[in-house]
DNA sequence: CGAATATTTCAATAAGTTTTGAAAGTTCAA
DNA sequence: TTGAACTTTCAAAACTTATTGAAATATTCG
């Protein structure tokens, strides 16, 4: 396989994966591009490589920076801004987990907590079923939260290696 | 808080969470509705409760059945079909993990495997950076895959309880 | 069988999301 | 202070995805 084909395939696959996870395709593609770039890239180079507009490039690079997986760097002697991706995939994974937890899981936990405080006849089967479901989800969510926090806190690979030893 | 408000809030929160995870909003809302229903519900009741069309209800209920988290049941004496959701949240979680892994992670692993076989000058910094990235992602993906498989296989709660003991 | 009831399909439409590109804003060297 | 180089913004357009509803198909019962 030629390098250029492999590169295109990788960018495409990463874009697809991103799309399925609610990250927009272009954002994931820019990330892919930067992941395999040996040097920092400018906005212009990104636009050119992916054939996207300036606005689109700007917006998605900024979002990648918000997620903490891309950084602006200054190249001495250049006026332009350049960008690099965090290359340690473990760190990328924890950054994404942290961000999604904050944006998605935490608000749901908050709502669930509220929903425990309903009033009404505790014998009504609708109310009983509701309370039971909410409580089960809450339990599950807290466990997930704990596991996720452990993952996020771990800066090294010990999480998985320990885990794998235990579950085999 | 009134029961009807709590119910509406729960359905809305679950729908939002689903949407962020690439599951369509209506599908997640139907799931929420069935999760808290004390009895099986008919298509009609679902349409009414969520104010959606027959086609929409039909399509999303079917998809939930594909995911293995909703089942058709026959109520004696009734001509209509009724639906129930799996109430064990742990099982719901593993079913979702299984399905997403199959649909999303597995194809990416397959592509990555291909991408190792690129030819070209091994000293070229672009090619070196590319190979390194692919290999790192592959390693990470395999670890994730292993963890996910363990989660999916576990029918009981031992996964989390063991995990939590270990990571503390 | 045939009528009544229930379910599924799917083309048209609506809703939602992403992308563009031009204009406005910023920075900085001269 | 000016203007060239660069970045950011945002309304409109393109594209994608979800929803409707009516027609087609299937199922059940007398």
UniProtKB/TrEMBL annotation, chains A, B:
Keywords: DNA-binding, Transcription, Transcription regulation
InterPro entries referenced in this protein's UniProt entry, alphabetically: ArsR-like_HTH, HTH-GbsR_regulator, HTH_MarR-typ, MJ1563, WH-like_DNA-bd_sf, WH_DNA-bd_sf
Domain HTH marR-type, first and last residues per copy: 22-80
One function term, GO molecular function aspect: DNA binding
Keyword Nucleotide-binding: no
UniProt xrefs under Pfam families: MarR_2
Domain of life: Bacteria
Family to which the UniProt record says this protein belongs: Belongs to the GbsR family.
Protein name: HTH-type transcriptional regulator
Organism of derivation: Chitinophaga cymbidii
């Amino acid at each position: 396989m030629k390098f250029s084909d492999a590169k295109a395939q990788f960018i495409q696959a990463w874009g697809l994966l991103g799309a399925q996870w609610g990250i927009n395709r272009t954002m994931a593609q820019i990330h892919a591009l930067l992941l395999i770039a040996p040097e920092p890239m400018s906005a212009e180079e990104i636009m050119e490589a992916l054939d996207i507009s300036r606005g689109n490039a700007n917006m998605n690079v900024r979002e990648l920076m918000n997620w903490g997986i891309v950084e602006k760097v200054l190249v001495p002697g250049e006026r332009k801004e350049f960008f690099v991706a965090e290359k340690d995939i473990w760190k990328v994974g924890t950054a994404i987990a942290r961000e999604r937890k904050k944006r998605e899981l935490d608000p749901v936990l908050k709502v669930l907590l509220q929903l425990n405080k309903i009033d009404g006849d505790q014998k009504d089967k609708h109310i009983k079923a509701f309370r039971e479901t909410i409580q089960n989800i809450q339990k599950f969510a807290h466990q997930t939260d704990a596991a996720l926090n452990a993952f996020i806190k771990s800066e090294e690979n010990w999480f998985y290696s320990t885990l794998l030893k235990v579950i085999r």
